[in-house]
Amino acid sequence: MTKGNIASGKTTCLEYFSKTSDIEVLTEPVSKWRNVQGCNPLGLMYQDPSRWGLTLQTYVQLTMLDRHVLPMSTPVRMMERSIYSAKYIFAENLYKSGKMPEVDFAVLSEWFEWIIKNIAIPVDLIVYLQTSPQTCYERLKQRCRDEEKVIPLEYLESIHNLYEDWLIHHKSFEVPAPVLVIPADHDLKKMLHQYEENREKILMAHC
Ligand SMILES: Nc1ncnc2c1ncn2[C@@H]1O[C@H](COP(=O)(O)OP(=O)(O)O)[C@@H](O)[C@H]1O
Ligand SMILES: Cc1cn([C@H]2C[C@H](O)[C@@H](COP(=O)(O)O)O2)c(=O)[nH]c1=O
């Protein structure tokens, strides 16, 4: 699984590996989060997180689960984020920042606990693209997704700190697989070089 802050370069990384034969790449279903039956839960959440946070996170949880249970069609599958990041990073951030009411967080948490207890979600390796929040802020502005124009640097800092506490400092939640950290503040050329250096570790993780 490839993890990292918003606009850290996850999709770019997965697009690079998707050129390799016998690898299936599952990018995040962001288009669904922007359009479910004509509504845009991602946009609504950024406009009014207290009202729409649960709506978005419930849908993210469902669509991530849907990805996790898809039968494998190749020996290797790379997936962008996971049901774990949705809960441990984004839902947690909404709750901790006082933007998700206690009852919403409790309902979402019970759903999440039920899922991970009853449905197998195997993960061999977490590839963590480690960036500074400032780098993500610049890449986010450059990508210019409409819904994300309201995101301040502080939001990316909170998401960054949650990732670091989870995957690096092991201070928050159980980590479901070994973590490969790839420093990702570099330009594209250096990033592609690092992906090549780590190719074997990434593609042989299931062995
Ligand atoms: N190493 C890099 N250097 C500069 N820009 C990058 C780099 N990697 C990705 N980008 C650009 O940053 C933006 C976010 O990248 P993307 O892969 O969509 O991130 P994510 O999937 O993590 O949100 C895109 O416009 C992309 O072209
Ligand atoms: C998993 C997850 C994502 N989001 C938001 C964060 C971003 O605005 C997009 C995903 O974009 P990225 O470029 O792939 O990082 O979705 C969220 O609000 N809640 C979540 O659980």
Automatic annotation (TrEMBL):
Looking at the record's lineage, which domain of life comes first?
Answer: Eukaryota
Reactions catalysed, semicolon-separated, are:
2'-deoxycytidine + ATP = dCMP + ADP + H(+); thymidine + ATP = dTMP + ADP + H(+); 2'-deoxyuridine + ATP = dUMP + ADP + H(+)
Answer whether the UniProt record assigns the keyword Kinase to this protein. yes
- Give all residue intervals belonging to the Deoxynucleoside kinase domain: 3-203
GO BP: carbohydrate derivative metabolic process; DNA biosynthetic process; nucleotide metabolic process
This protein's major location comes to: mitochondrion
Could you give a GO molecular-function term held by this entry? thymidine kinase activity
Q: Which GO terms describe its cellular component?
A: mitochondrion
The subcellular location is: Mitochondrion
Q: Which Gene3D superfamilies match?
A: P-loop containing nucleotide triphosphate hydrolases (3.40.50.300)
Which residues are catalytic?
80
Q: Which residues bind ATP?
A: 4-12, 139-143
Top-tier EC class:
transferase
Which UniProt keywords are present, listed alphabetically? ATP-binding, DNA synthesis, Kinase, Mitochondrion, Nucleotide-binding, Transferase, Transit peptide
Q: What is its EC number?
A: 2.7.1.21, 2.7.1.74
Tell me the protein family, please: Belongs to the DCK/DGK family.
- Please report the name of this protein according to its UniProt entry: Thymidine kinase 2, mitochondrial
What organism does this protein naturally occur in? Sinocyclocheilus rhinocerous
